[in-house]
Specification:
Elements lengths: L3 E5 L4 H12 L3 E6 L3 H11 L2 E4 L5 H15 L4 E4 L14 H29 L2 E6 L2 H5 L5 H21 L4 E8 L5 H4 L3 H9 L9 H12 L10 E4 L7
Parallel strand pairs: 1-2, 1-4, 2-3, 4-5, 5-6, 6-7
Helix pairs in contact: 1-9, 3-4, 4-6
The protein binds acetoacetyl-coenzyme A (CAA).
Length: 240
């Protein structure tokens, strides 16, 4: 059944694959992006998916952006919090700005978007929230105290909200991707990435479409008995 879905960071990387897969599953998708207009236009032209530009780390912008999506497309029933950034540095070199911007963009955005959509989901007694965390939130990423903290925070946040809203037909789940072939992973120095891949049991990076398939499943009506769960899609690199 077609539902209205928001995917944050939905025009590039893993988010692009999620937007496309949710559309192919019959949903109407709004792909939210922060800055890259050229890529957003290419994405929209290629897929026919509507894009919306606002900063998910800013609560007021989320209120306004979601209100616009609802007025264009209808009430939100599926929310995928995928937007995220890295500012990698070992802790002894990390600046307060590198800490704050990652927490705000990766974790506070999740609060912002859930907060502005949850009341309508509760009123309608249906919702599917899928938060894209990271294996590094479970494992602790080298050079990623900020990112690992934000991604671990998403897991605790999701379990709390899953518990609060389970009786309202709303499920809240987390996907923890491992190393997936996107621009974010391409920024890792080559000598580091080679050693990372050699430690992945399936011996390759993941594909964005492999994360998107998990999202489609968790967003489906069939997944109504799964909530508060963390789905690891990481090639066996971290087994919980
Ligand atoms: N594990 C173990 N050792 C590592 C390492 C790792 N993942 N990454 C770096 N090191 C080691 C280096 O080999 C180096 O060791 P030597 O001095 O013996 O050569 C030492 O740490 C210092 O490394 P750098 O010279 O690179 O130091 P730097 O201060 O210039 O940079 C860094 C440090 C920012 C952490 C850099 O190494 C880096 O960017 N590493 C990659 C971080 C990473 O894995 N990011 C993941 C991005 S993908 C993602 O986040 C998606 C997801 O959800 C999984």
């Amino acid at each position: 059944m077609g539902r209205v879905a928001i995917v944050t960071g939905g025009t590039r990387g893993i988010g692009e694959a999620i937007s496309i897969a949710l559309k192919e599953a019959g949903n109407t998708v709004a792909a939210v992006y922060a800055g890259n207009d050229v890529k957003a236009k290419e994405f929209s032209d290629a897929t026919g998916i509507q894009t919306y530009k606002f900063d998910v780390s800013n609560f007021e912008q989320c209120q306004e952006g979601v209100a616009k999506i609802v007025s264009d497309l209808g009430p939100i029933e599926i929310l995928v919090n995928n937007a995220g950034i890295t500012r990698d540095a070992t802790l002894h070199k990390m600046t307060p700005d590198q800490w704050a911007v990652v927490i705000q963009t990766d974790l506070t955005s999740c609060f912002n978007m859930c907060r502005v959509t949850i009341e309508s989901m509760r009123e309608r007694s249906f919702g599917r929230i899928i938060n894209i965390s990271s294996m590094n939130g479970e494992l602790g990423g080298f050079g990623q105290a900020n990112y690992s903290a934000a991604k671990a925070g998403m897991i605790g946040f999701s379990k709390a909200v899953a518990r609060e809203d389970a009786g309202k037909g709303i499920t809240v789940n987390v996907i923890t991707p491992g190393f997936v072939a996107t621009e974010m992973v391409e920024t890792i120095p080559e000598k580091v990435i080679n050693s990372i891949v050699s430690n992945i049991p399936v011996k390759r990076l993941g594909q964005p479409s492999e994360i998107a398939r998990g999202v489609v499943f968790l967003s489906s009506d069939d997944a109504g008995y799964i909530t508060g769960c963390t789905l690891d899609i990481n090639g066996g690199m971290y087994m919980t």
